[in-house]
């Protein structure tokens, strides 16, 4: 789909992330994707996870038309049109008054490459919203770079963090320990940590 917004990073990491997800998720369920961006992950996952229903969202209204076009062209019965969702809002989603009756709980909430390209309040909102909208036994899965205590930081992540903070002082790679503590305050606990290509991590949180 050359005429649609395209992320080379999303294209590179979509299969490794899917490989990890297939070992984490059950055979079927409903997934809410936060910060869908271009929609590449949503289409890739929905294609492979045919018994999962995926709801893409983004906090930037300008991203929605591109995601909607990608979703429409994929024509997958388990992939819904995107909706506007600001993770920092006290109620999800931001578009409309609420999720449809009986469809406000999810077996998985997935968020890639948002926590470090947003103010810290986005991490707080993500954890609080996930705690509200996960079903019992559900998981929040986050993907991206993290700093870890007692783990040497890759030079590429140090350079990336400097670049992020140069673009916006409120952005930056987060300490895994800080993210896990924020999750715990919201009622979530870090259950799994998966090393991923290019010095990224995939984290799995569950309700306490």
**Widest β-sheet, arrangement of strands:** 3-2-1-4-5-9-8
The computed structural class is alpha/beta
- What portion of the residues fall into strands of 2 or more residues? 25-35%
Tally of strands? 9
Biggest sheet layout? 7 strands, mixed
- The number of helical runs is 6
Residue share in helices? 25-40%
Radius of gyration: 16 Å
Notes on the protein architecture:
- There is one protein chain.
- With 208 residues, this protein is α/β, with parallel strands linked by helices.
- Helix content is 36%, strand content 26%.
- The chain contains six helices and nine strands.
- It has a seven-stranded mixed beta sheet with strand order 3-2-1-4-5-9-8, with helices on both faces.
- Helix 1 runs parallel beside helix 2 (40-48) and helix 4 crosses helix 6 (176-186).
- The chain is globular, with a radius of gyration of 16 Å.
Outline of this structure?
With about 210 residues, this protein is an alpha/beta fold. Helices cover about 35% and strands about 25% of the residues. The longest helix is centred in the first third of the chain and has 17 residues.
SSE topology:
Blueprint lengths: L7 H17 L4 E6 L5 H9 L3 E7 L5 H11 L8 E2 L21 E7 L7 H14 E11 L1 E2 L7 H13 L6 E2 H11 L1 E9 L3 E8 L1
Parallel strand pairs: 1-2, 1-4, 2-3, 4-5, 6-7
Antiparallel strand pairs: 5-9, 8-9
Helix pairs in contact: 1-2, 4-6
Key words describing this protein structure:
single chain, 208 residues, alpha/beta, seven-stranded mixed sheet, 6 helices, 9 strands, 36% helix, 26% strand, globular
